[in-house]
Design a protein that fits this description.
The complex is a heterodimer. Chain A is of the alpha/beta class. Helices cover about 35% and strands about 20% of the residues of chain A. Chain A has two domains: about 1-185, Thiamin diphosphate (ThDP)-binding fold, Pyr/PP domains (Rossmann fold); about 195-325, Rossmann fold. Chain A has helices at about 5-20, 45-50, 60-75, 90-100, 100-105, 135-140, 150-165, 175, 215-230, 245-255, 270-280, 315-325, and strands spanning about 1-5, 25-30, 55, 75-80, 115-120, 145, 170-175, 180-185, 195-200, 205-210, 230-235, 240, 260-265, 290-295. In chain A, helix 1 packs parallel to helix 7 and helix 3 (about 60-75) packs parallel to helix 4 (about 90-100). By secondary structure, chain B is an alpha/beta fold. Chain B folds into two domains: about 20-325, 3-Layer(aba) Sandwich (Rossmann fold), CATH 3.40.50.970; about 330-360, no CATH class. The longest helix of chain B has 26 residues, at about 40-65. Chain B starts with 19 loop residues before the first strand and ends in a 26-residue tail after the last helix. The chains are: A alpha/beta, B alpha/beta.
């Protein structure tokens, strides 16, 4: 076991998967010599050569589009989009093609590829560098949408995504890249995509979060325990789509109350699908409406005002208390 | 510091570029024998047979659409030489990346006619290439398939596979960002891909002069560091000669090429289109004089290579394919869930079960009829127009 931050943990997953499978290639802007603007691909070009770690021209659509072609051939490309805010320039390649080739070709082709993007706020960055857009990908049939919450699960999920036969959009919270170190085993490990984890058990309320918001949910559970004597269950979603409805419904069937926390804007966001799924699966057990603590429905606010926009501990605790008092 | 008033010298950075236009057999039947490609009598007959099949099938498919037996379809009439002259230069182990107007190239590549009919009748099963077939299915969003071609070529090169990738698109596609990105990546990566532009003069209602201010499409390649050549796209010998050279270069590791085939869409954009709204009959008549089939027929007649009864045999082949298509049991509606993911996730299993229950309730184990409603469906911004 070594203590690694999320950047190093992701780098380890990439290194081990490239060692394991010569068909794994990396492409993106500045991923080679520079090791990526967040250093996630650091040193990989030196180890594996510029044919496998490709410094591409600056064009998101062609990074994904050529990645699709490589995947159709049988390679396993890991494409990096430098910031998720730039991915609308390749959204058509993801939605029109990566997600659909399996269906369009009736199983003759698949797109086993990973599309990595840093997302989310908390790093005092400009417009298009702080948004959360997971809902767009979660909505697309044929895609899988994964967001880890820490170094160890980031490493295991990235390895699983690379081995997955379908396209996986893999969001990495910028706020977590250097946030904390965690014990990460040296030998390769994976986590199943499509499975949420109950990371804290409790019987009074279910807090559902993912990515950088998991820490906020955990802290809220601590506060609720200490100040209110409330035992909150905390679920780390890990995969946004396909959504692990079974774990969500089982938890809320027990607690009767749920609060969903995400950084994406509220309307039509993941919280809406989660609330609907809980309603469909545990309606008669619900003691209160499912609450959503999210960013407001504002495209961006500028980092100076970000704190008031992104869910924080106080907002999650307040929402939990209102839900408990309903 | 330069003395004031002294002229700044302008230097030519590179020799000025030139774009070649290649024509071997013109519409009057004149042949440039020095450029005539070396094709055997069997190859010439085969090429001609597929040109005739492409033409007759196209006409038949338009009729099938009018009769409501298939849905919206994008005809190729007039573009047979561009498609077959180029695809003819490929090996079966090469890759073919079509847009949505490549019927002739697709049948040459081995797509069964009934599968194409199934596709245009609205069944996804019609988009499935055969297990070893190195053809991508039809791509509809204009130009977006071109980066896939570059990725396939990169992968082939990476795996030391000497396959070449040939990608098709029209003049309209050259305005798309994906087109430029694909050519740029292909140039930088120096991969074995041949870009075949069927410049058929019209992107639905927009003529070439409103599509680009460039004199040719071929010259756009030069900016990306690739060779570009313009050919008479209605001259199957010229298209073949250019494609042969480009494919051989690609296979030899000499990188990508752009071929602009100057041709004409003699028919509608799709069966939902009415071109009398935007172009003159005289223009169509002028291009009918340059029909790729007429001049190739004359060329073969002079060489005594025309087969008696070819049209009738081709028509019988098409009729048999239509019969097979219409005799197919309608595909199971529940199979649409099968290929969304490699393994069906829980929520899709649940939706499949819901649908199965609905079908059972409706007593509909025998599902819908094979042909869709006889309604035209617009493609890419088309109005519904009945003729």
């Amino acid at each position: 076991m070594t203590k690694l931050n999320m950047v190093k943990a992701l780098n380890l997953a990439l290194f081990q998967e490239m060692e394991r499978d010569p068909d794994v290639v990396i492409l993106g802007e500045d991923v080679g010599v520079d090791g990526g603007v967040f250093r996630v691909t650091d040193d990989l070009q030196r180890k594996f050569g510029s044919q496998r770690v490709i410094d591409s021209p600056l064009a998101e659509a062609a990074i994904i589009g050529t990645g699709v072609g490589m995947a159709l051939y049988g390679l396993r490309p890991v494409c990096e989009i430098q910031f998720s805010g730039f991915a609308f320039q390749c959204f058509h390649q993801i939605e029109n093609h990566a997600a659909r080739y399996r269906l369009r070709s009736q199983g003759r082709f698949g797109c086993a590829m990973v599309i990595r993007m840093p997302y989310g706020g908390g790093v005092r960055a400009l417009e298009h560098h702080t948004e959360s857009e997971e809902q767009f990908y979660a909505h697309v049939p044929g895609l899988k949408m994964v967001i880890p919450s820490g170094p160890r699960n980031a490493r295991a999920l990235l390895a699983a995504a690379i081995r997955d036969p379908d396209p996986v959009v893999f969001f990495e919270a910028k706020a977590l890249y250097h946030a904390a170190k965690e014990e990460v085993p040296e030998e390769s490990e994976t986590l199943p995509i499509g499975r949420a984890q109950v990371v804290r058990e409790g019987g009074d309320l279910t807090l559902i979060a993912y990515g950088a918001m998991l820490r906020v949910a955990r802290e809220a559970a601590d506060v609720l325990q200490a100040e209110d004597g409330v035992a909150a269950e905390v679920i780390d979603l890990l995969t946004i789509s396909p959504l692990d409805r079974e774990t969500l419904v089982a938890s809320v069937a027990k607690t009767g109350r749920a609060v969903v926390v995400h950084e994406a804007p509220r309307s039509f966001g993941p919280g809406a699908e989660i609330a609907a799924s809980i309603m469909e699966g545990a309606f008669l057990r619900l003691e209160a409406p499912v609450r959503r603590v999210t960013a407001h429905d504002v495209a961006f606010v500028g980092f100076a005002r970000e704190k008031a926009h992104v869910p924080d501990l106080a907002r999650v605790v307040a929402a939990a208390r209102e839900t408990l008092a309903f | 510091m330069r003395a004031p008033g002294r002229p700044m010298p302008r230097t030519i950075l590179e020799p000025r570029f030139q774009v070649e236009h290649l024509s071997i057999l013109d519409s009057e039947g004149h042949l440039d024998a020095a450029l005539e490609p070396k094709l055997s009598p069997d190859e010439l007959r085969s090429l001609y047979r597929f040109m005739v099949l492409g033409r007759r099938l196209d006409e038949r498919m338009v009729r099938l659409q009018r009769q409501g037996r298939i849905g919206t379809f994008a005809p190729i009439k007039g573009q047979e030489a561009s498609q077959l002259g180029s695809a003819f230069a490929l090996r079966p182990t090469d890759w073919m990346v079509p847009s949505f107007r490549e019927t002739a190239a697709m049948i040459w590549r081995g797509w069964p006619i009934e599968k194409l009919l199934l596709f245009f009748a609205g069944y996804v099963e019609g988009g499935q290439p055969a297990p070893a077939q190195r053809d991508l299915p039809i791509t509809i969003p204009v130009g977006t398939q071109l980066p896939h071609a570059v990725g396939l070529a990169y992968a082939a090169q990476y795996k030391s596979d000497d396959a070449v990738v040939m990608a098709y698109f029209g003049d309209g596609a050259t305005s798309e960002g994906d087109w430029h990105e694909a050519l740029n990546f292909a140039g930088v990566w120096h991969v074995p891909v041949v870009f075949v532009c069927q410049n058929n003069q019209w992107a639905i209602s927009v003529p070439l002069k409103k599509q680009t201010h460039s004199k040719t499409i071929a010259q756009k390649a030069l900016a990306y560091g690739l060779p570009g050549i313009q050919v008479d796209g209605n001259d199957v010998l010229a298209v073949y000669a250019a494609a042969r050279e480009a494919v051989d270069r690609a296979r030899a590791g000499e990188g990508p090429t752009l071929i602009e085939c100057v041709t004409y869409r003699l028919g509608v954009h799709t069966t939902a289109d009415d071109p009398t709204k935007y172009r003159a009959d005289e223009e169509v008549k002028m291009w009918e004089q340059k029909d790729p089939l007429t001049r190739f027929t004359a060329y073969l007649r002079e060489r005594n290579l025309l087969e008696d009864g070819l049209e009738a045999r081709v028509d019988a082949e098409i009729a048999e394919a239509v019969r097979r298509f219409e005799a197919m049991p309608p595909p199971d509606p529940l199979t649409v869930f099968d290929h969304v993911y490699a393994e069906m996730p829980a929520h899709l299993r649940a939706q499949r079960d819901e649908m199965a229950a609905r079908l059972r309730e409706a007593g509909a184990a025998a599902p819908e009829a094979p042909a869709p409603e006889p309604r035209a469906t617009p493609m890419r911004g088309q109005r519904l127009t009945r003729r």
